Amino acid sequence: MTATLGSSTGLPTSDADPFDHAVLEDPLPLQAALREAGPMVHLSRYDVYAMARYAEVHAALVDWQEFQSGAGVGLSNFRFEKPWRPPSLLLEADPPKHDAPRRVLTSVLSPRALRRLRDRWIADAEVLVDEVLSAGTEFDAVPVLTSAFPLRVFPDAVGLPQEGRENLLPYGDHAFNAFGPDNDLVARGAPRVAELSGWVASVCRREALAPEGFGASIWAASDRGEITPEQAPLIVRSLLTAGVDTTVHGLSAVLYAFATHPGQWERLREQPSLARVAFDEAVRWESPVQTFFRTATTDVRVGDHVVPDGSKILMFLGAANRDPRRWDDPDSFDLSRDPSGHVGFGMGIHQCAGQHVARLESEALLTALARRVRSIELAGPTARHLNNTLRSWESIPLRLHVD
User: What GO molecular function annotations does the UniProt record carry, in alphabetical order (predicted)?
Assistant: First the structure.
């Protein structure tokens, strides 16, 4: 990053590209430079304003009145540009349009609803871990564990048909790429957009969903008049867009963290109740969702500077989650830390509605592994999967030592 003071306003400016492949591969140097530059930086390449410190990112996330989501949470500004798909009723909407869909989804994914799934998912995780370990103790964790487990349990919980589930990850990958600029990563997924979007739309219909599950519960809310029949499939779509890729990369993050911090794995084995803390600490430390945009609804003051009405603001969630102004020793993965307050799931009214689902999946998988596995180590070089929004993994070769 090159950060220079603007001659007329005194606002730090940078010509860095946060979506450059090298930055996506290793975003930490840019994030640190942005934090040090000031509370806000102007990114001249895209003419957007950036926040990388925890205090400013947190404040913007909870202030939906001045930092709106309804104009899109990507670089595209819906005030002037047509979205590539109908906007999300949760992620890309503000009150009052946001309220009823959010209430319904919060109820569908409530802790009470998830309690009914807990025993089944814990049993599913035990079976998966047994299957994996019976085939050997060296493997790539991404295809056999961190992708396999969410794809094993989450589509069933939604009530999706079996056919076509392989479309979930590429659809989510493209959706999160589309929040960034129209670069080569977006072009990579473009040839399949119509096919993937068509499949997703087809399985969000009432008749495609199982009679029990998250999807059926959303449609039941439309029968009660809590949402309209037109809103129901878009709310189901939100589950499919944000409910798989993010969890896959969160699980990858926590396994990578344990492979590179063996003392923390020993701590988890001694105290399995730390499984949920471990997942949240991994989400803080690795931040699977790295960035989201907001749009200023008026001239908004941030520190000593003003974001003009209609301007895009890029919030660096990953940078905020490693801000030393908020966290002690932020670059370490530490189960003695209280990671609550991290912004890896967002904050405020748009905070991730499915975060408890992800935590339950992680708890099930980590608990199953901790019962069987004495230690975890890397068995070879890891590889990133580049995405404009997600901190993603292509490959994490692991070697497990089993009791």
Answer: heme binding; iron ion binding; monooxygenase activity; oxidoreductase activity, acting on paired donors, with incorporation or reduction of molecular oxygen
How many C-alpha atoms does 304 have within 13 Å on its Cβ side? 5
43 CB-near residues (< 8 Å, 6+ apart): 13, 14, 15, 16, 18, 49, 50, 314
- The 10s digit of each residue's pLDDT in 350-400 is 999 999 999 999 999 999 999 999 999 999 999 999 999 999 999 999 999
Q: How far apart are CA 255 and CA 395, in angstroms?
A: 12
Q: Is residue 12 domain-resident?
A: no
9 — pLDDT class (breaks 50, 70, 90):
low
Domain contains 17: no
| Residue 350 domain flag | yes
Between strands 291-296 and 67-68, the pairing is antiparallel
Q: Is 51 a domain residue?
A: yes
- The total domain count for the chain is 1
* Domain boundaries, position 190: 28-402
234-251 pLDDT tens trace: 999 999 998 899 999 999
Q: What does the DSSP assignment read for 317-359? A: HHHHTT-TTTSSSTTS--TTS--TT-SBTB-GGGS-TTHHHHH
